[in-house]
Amino acid sequence: METPLPLDGAVRLTHCGVIRAKGADAVKFLQGQLTNDVATLDRSHARLAGFCSAKGRLQANFVVWKAGDDELLLACSASVLAATLKRLSMFVMRAQCKLTDATDELPLWGALGASARALMQQAAVGDARNVDGGTVIRVPDASGVMRCLLDAPTDSGLSATLTALPSLALDAWRLLEVRSGIPIIEAATVDQFVPQMLNYELVGGVDFQKGCYPGQEVVARSQYRGTIKRRMFLFDMDASATPGQEVFHSTDPGQPAGMVVNAAPGPDGRGACALVEVKLAALDGGSLHLGEPAGPGLRRVELGYAVPVDANLPTA
Question: Is the CB of residue 122 less than 8 Å from the CB of residue 138?
Fold first, then answer.
């Protein structure tokens, strides 16, 4: 499935939410909880980061940026926000850090194409800029289309600017979100994957030098002992797909070979594009099918970055 081009405009990201961490210990607290380094984060940049269980499984993942010296904002799937906020709050204890749901106060938007370029100009991926009372963050391109993530308070000049831009369908953003190859933990996939299963260290979501966080030993062991036997790849298919849906291999129909991580409708509203975590062995011959061994076939599409442990499954 090819993404129809050009895409230009903005859309309110109702499937996403924002957690605010504020207080004198906010940076220190999150530094001890997340997979990436936030202690060196400045107000001009944003980073990916994950929140793992003690077993190294992702409970949520975020785009993180600073709103002030003692304030960080974490964008995540709305479907995991409440549970993540509750779980993170359990570890605050005596730290001077207050965690709140800031979604209503800081609505998230996405901008694509020429609109994104006008907002960010020539900024690099990961750059963050304060614009008219909000924040504009350059996130990775997808299918050659520039993308920006924005927090835009409803009374800000940035909100007015976004409202005046061409209106995009949320599915258009979601399709490029999937095609970017950056995974998002949703309610159906909580506690299913260590970061490397989702290529999270390949896209800058894990810092192996930052020190301890929940699950850090498991994540480090997976990295340095070469025990990564599952990875995430991009697929097209002629059926709708949902996060958490199992995938089966033609030569081993008795057990799942993988799981859908994220999915979006195809550009014409038919079929789907999906990020799917699969056993590497399942890519060596045979075919992959959605939902059941006789389900719709998966056609692999090239990701925008290299996966170091690859296999010989042809790409479309």
Answer: no
Residue 214 token pair: 């929940």
Q: What is the CATH number of the domain that holds 280?
A: 2.40.30.160
- DSSP strands (E only) in the chain: 9-12, 16-22, 46-52, 58-68, 71-77, 98-101, 108-112, 128-131, 134-142, 145-151, 230-237, 246-249, 252-265, 272-279, 288-290, 298-301
| Spatial CA neighbour of 275 closest among 287, 292, 263 | 263
Structural domain span for residue 232: 187-301
Find tokens 């509750």 and name the residue: 86
3-state secondary structure of 206: coil
Domain boundary among 127, 144, 179: 179
Compute the distance between CA of residue 85 and CA of residue 106 in angstroms, rounded to an integer. 16
Could you tell me the two tokens for 242? 């949902």
Is 4 inside any structural domain? no
Same domain flag for 217 and 289: yes
Whether 12 and 169 have beta carbons less than 8 Å apart is answered as no
User: Residue 159 phi/psi, 5° resolution?
Assistant: -60, -40
Could you tell me which of 67, 183, 89 has the C-alpha nearest to residue 133?
67
Residue 167 sits in the same domain as residue 206: no
pTM over 0.90? The answer is: yes
Q: How deeply is 89 buried, as exposed, middle or buried, from its count of CB atoms within 10 A (0-12, 13-18, 19+)?
A: middle
pLDDT (tens digit, 9 = 90+) per residue, 25-63?
Answer: 999 999 999 999 999 999 999 999 999 999 999 999 999
